[in-house]
Amino acid sequence: MKERITLCGDNCIECSRYNAHSEAELKRVAELWYRVGWRDKVVTNEEITCSGCSSHKAGTYGLVDCIMKHSVEKCNQCEAFPCDNIMDMLERSKNL
Questions:
Q1: By the 8 A CB rule, do 18 and 53 touch?
Q2: What is the dihedral of CA 39, 49, 28, 25, to 10 degrees?
Q3: Is residue 4 part of a domain?
Q4: Which of 13, 20, 78, 88 could form a disulfide with 25 if both were Cys (CB 3.0 to 4.6 A apart)?
Q5: Per-residue pLDDT tens for 37-92?
Q6: Residue 26: which domain range?
Q7: Residue 7 or residue 69, greater confidence
């Protein structure tokens, strides 16, 4: 299986956001992410478009800020792993 692993360990190749390219696909992803609680509102297509993990993202788990604070590139490189941010992400994902 092809992989592209993110900060938290997710595989981008299986992510609806990463795979959404048309306006309609992006809108469906924004609506889905709102329904499952990953956003507090339906965001614009521009906001939901994936441009990779970076420090300007304001994700619901705070992982970008966290890895910068701990001077690591991926969560699993951190001494605190698995931390509350990761445990919260896993718990919320269980309920989807």
A1: no
A2: -170
A3: no
A4: 20
A5: 878 899 999 988 887 765 444 555 677 788 889 998 888 888 998 888 888 777 76
A6: 12-94
A7: 69
Please state whether the predicted TM-score (pTM) of the whole model is above 0.85: no
Task: Please write down the HEC assignment for all residues of the chain.
Answer: CCCCECCCCCEHHHCHHHHCCCHHHHHHHHHHHHHCCCCCCCCCHHHHCCCCCCCCCCCCCCHHHHHHHCCCCCHHHCCCCCCHHHHHHHHHHHCC
Q: Who contacts 30 (Cβ-Cβ below 8 Å, separation ≥6)?
A: 39, 42, 43, 44, 45, 47, 48
Length of the chain: 96
Cα–Cα distance for residue pair 39/32, rounded to 1 Å: 9
Predicted local confidence at residue 88, as pLDDT? 79
pLDDT in tens, 18-40: 889 999 999 999 999 888 887 88
In a domain, 74, yes or no: yes
> Cβ–Cβ contacts within 10 Å for residue 91, how many?
9
